[in-house]
Amino acid sequence: MAQDLGVSRNTVTATLDELIADGWVEARRGSGVYVLHETRAEQPEAVDAPTDEPFTRPFEIDPPGLDIFPLEAWRRIQARRWADMPRMDLREGASAGYSGLRRTIADHVWVAHGVSCTPEQIIVTQGARSGLDLVLRCLTEPGDDVWLEKPGYFGFRSIMDAAGRRPVYAPVDAEGLDVAAARALSPGARLAVVTPQSQMPTCMRMSEERRQALLDWAAETGGWIFEDDYDAEFRFDKGRALPLAGQPGADRVIYAHSFNKTLFPALRIGFLVVPPGLTDLFVEKRRHADGYPSVPDQMVLRDFIEAGWLDTHVRACRAAYRQRKDVMYETVEPMLRRWLRFEDHPSGLHIVAWLDPAVSPAALRDRALSVGIHLTPMDDYYPEPAGDPRLVLGFAGFTPDRLIAGARKLLAILSEETTG
Ligand SMILES: Cc1ncc(COP(=O)(O)O)c(C=O)c1O
């Protein structure tokens, strides 16, 4: 074999030893070396090639305005951070998050959201969902009841299932979560998951009476409140008010916010503000879960905020989103008025629209998807089909041109559905 291949005997022997050790071939005394056929499972044939293709469809809920994100500033800040990165900073990170970012967030959450806390109370997470997961593991036991809003953000349902906690769906009305109804459904619940500033998906602000009722429930029963302030920056009226966590008597509130919506979804960084006595517990549980978040990403985010880019970007977003919202009311709604009536919301990056009862939201969603339009039936926000005739239309991630082009396609489909 050495002669055939034109290599030395030592090379052949060493290679065969390696193949035998890895189980590819077998040496049979006095007979030779044989290839083993059954050593490896067949590589499964790819059904769909994986793709990271970034596409967004008009009226999708999730994407923020990626077109206005200051990518150049982020690139520069990231390059500078890596250029100066001491090798020691490549070691493991802290479970509560990078201390520099925690300090910056503590300042930011006070100035921007009115929540007063120390850097020690900040736990950096991957976002609101991973924040809820950690809260469930720290403050509840498997099988415990947890109040969720109905309708409410569907992303939290799977977190509850995975953690084995029992969701109790409490109705939401024009004042937010109905605390009395929730108490009747589950008096022993350990946690309430709420969006008081801008209820997801109805965009209502929780009334003062309901806020007090929720705080009273927590104080009386020893329950906890998870306040998801996901859309905090984007109220378009003058009615910005303190989140629950900034109100007096909020010592049983865990405040959650996410940069994934404010900046860009691929970032995967958010944070919790936990009451002072709970920090050690959260850090300990975090250590045993996913350890700690990516340190260099946290450093870049810290530099981005400290350089004033978060504030600049939020201002730019507010202006762009206000314009996009105006396009929705002034151009899109008149085009579609025969079938859709838009609710009026002072907050939120989406609009709730009442659909003509003659049209099925699910059928329309499927038809729209086939032409590249993403509609979200309100029913998706219920744990089971509720027959809610409304649609939820995202606008923040799309330029006026894309919104209007999307509306034209929708108009064509709705006209077909009604005449056909
Ligand atoms: C109500 C609500 N909370 C939180 C989030 C974001 O969660 P995460 O930071 O886990 O991506 C969203 C995303 O759309 C949301 O709608």
- Give the integer mean of the pLDDT values: 91
Largest beta sheet: what is the strand line-up? 3-10-9-8-7-4-5-6
Number of strands: 14
Q: Tell me what portion of residues adopts beta-strand conformation.
A: 15-25%
Q: Distance N terminus to C terminus?
A: 75 Å
* Main structural class: alpha/beta
Helix coverage percent: 40-55%
* Helix count, DSSP H or I runs of 4 or more residues: 14
Taken from the alpha-carbon principal axes, the silhouette is: globular
What small ligands are held by the chains? Answer: pyridoxal-5'-phosphate
What summary fits the major beta sheet? 8 strands, mixed
Give the H and E element order: HHEEHHEHEHEEHEHEEHEHHHEEHEEH
Runs in which pLDDT lies below 50 for 5 or more consecutive residues are none
Radius of gyration: 27 Å
Short overview:
Helices cover 40% and strands 15% of the residues. The mean pLDDT is 91. It is built from 14 helices and 14 strands.
